[in-house]
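Good morning,

Both structures are done.
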Amino acid sequence: MEDIASNNRPSGSRPRRIGRPAKILPTDAERRERRRRWLFILFMIALLVPGSFFIGPARLTPYRVFLLLAVLPLLWQVARGALGRLTAVDAFFVSYVFWLALATFVHEGMARYESIVVLTVESLCGYLFGRVMVRNASDYRQMMQVFLTSLLVLAPFALIEMATDQNLVARIAGTFLEPFGQGDLAPRMGLHRAQVSFEHPILFGLFCSLGFANAFYIYRLHRRKQLFWMGTSGFTTFASLSSAPLLALLLQSMMILWDRIARNLKAKWLILAGTGVAVFGVLELITPNGAVDFLVNNLTLVPETAEFRILTFEYVIEKVIEYPVFGIPPDTVVLPWWHTGSIDNYWLSTAITYGVPTTLFLFFAIVIHLVKVMGAEIAEDEASDVRTGHLIAVAALVFLLATVHIWGPVSVMIMIYLGAGAWIYVPEAARTSVRMRANRPVPSPVRPDSAPPEPARPQPATGRVRGSTGRYGSGA
């Protein structure tokens, strides 16, 4: 039997049923959060699909297509003021992208315009994607949850590749894309080195290592989740069997331990940085061949490669001094016979290819970013934890870039990660769009000798009323 609200109703109207719950519509914040989650998921899928295809002379990958489609929306958000106040980090990063494109133009001219476009889109749009999409601690946690989930998806494929040397992800993607090359690398510790969605195992390991400290701090109050996601990041990083990613886990673990020990110590990160510089200086003075030689020889899984790394660094530094402004076109670098195949130092590799200014602009952008993150005032404990995880991951990254060369998806992910940390020192209130600021009502000044304004009389409602959900209902 149905309950009728009232029998005294206008003829022809339907009875109103009592007891049926009203449909709860999502709020604007919930819809925004859902859109961002799906954008993070779509981008992570595009980033982790290995392979490429050609349109004319341009070599495209799924993540490049995603960023190309995002160019205009991102620039529109920048024009609307979504970035808030611009910082010195933004200025140095834009300068880095500009010199990158300029050096490419000097080397190749407009005959290879697609190279300029691709480099600019990967670097600038990657950074802007992080800046625009991550506006607070909640957005950051959501991005990292998508990232950690992607590592969980890749973990079984990494395990299979370690045991059988069969890259199933590359095989599946190779059915509709031109697959990346598979390196014929010798096993280590009786296991094959997993590269899964990347062009080299070291790239896969470095990518996965970004989640370790973040998992520790994001889930600090949830011990089971903390251990699970740290284990996921740690296992996938180990699956690469590469020295640099494993060193990343070691550095992050040491910084986490330091944070726990010195939790009540002011300027603890500056003290740690000063201690690191002092230790490096002592090693430079007391070791026979300097600190770099000592670290390379003692922090690699295969010590036999250490001598070649040192010789490579010395050779590249000579070339950088010889061509400091725009570097040397990659195709014209004549490498010695003992060269191992890559310049395992991102800073030197960038300097020799695009010039010293390119390296300095990016280095200063990252260092200033770290300083601003350390100096930001954050009241909420959970947001402060997120800040610490980001800080540790970036600090370890600065050191690791002196031991590896990065390109492709890992390079883009690092640009996004740097942009995603700007919310720490650019408050969300400062990111209000230009249009919203322009439409804010400006209170009219009230003179002391004037009477207070008469309160507005309520007007009868006509038609439907827009409410807090942006649809229909009470606006209260």
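Second structure follows.
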Amino acid sequence: MIVNGYIDDSADEAVFVLAGYVAPAEEWAKFSDEWAATLKAPPSIAYLKTKEAMGSRGKKPNGEFHRWTENQRDAKLNALYRVIDKYVSFEVSAVIHLGPFRRIFGNGVLPKAAANPYYHAISGLISGVAREQIRQGMPEKIDFVFDEQLMEQGRFLAIWDDLARTAPPDVKPMIGSTPIFRKDSGEDAVLPLQAADLEAWWLRQRWREKLTGEPEIPYPWQPAAIPGVSNVFDEAELKICYEKIFQAHWDLGWRPG
């Protein structure tokens, strides 16, 4: 059985998120047919970008949702979310609190790559998923697909190769093929990435509300009990990561400066 995970990112000054969903390939095929039909159902949209649907910081919905009422928007998002709930196996995410991350990793001591939140988020996401597979007795490796706008692909692949090489012994056998990058809109759109966009945006929003005390924006749907695998890098976890990375570099002969 081929299993795929589709991942997107969302970030602001408070939090960085990688998130998405995992399901067997045949379920994603069914998902894509129903998702496309739901997009086309009146009032129709060509694609889903959640930041267009929800606006940003006081701005009104835009793009595909320009001139929509909130009720129309919420009904469309609700319908799309029901497609996600119907077909995905579980959701996956990694969350980095950027305030403590900048304080801990921005001191210039470790190599520059260590101050890249993508490194920690990808590591946490892949390790979390692999350990959940082990816990469930799920032998299939997961092949990941990322939104091609997520980051510069050469840097991403360098990070991936390093993670695959240094992964813990229990995680390494579960790592799938090198991820690929695809578009989430346009002629060659990969529709599961639009679901990942929805999950990443809302997870970032929820964490932003927790960290800043902003009022909670209500979901346009009743959240389902979708199983989840999440790694949260708060201040305590980031300090542990910093110490481990420092020690690993030190053991290899690296010295600050």
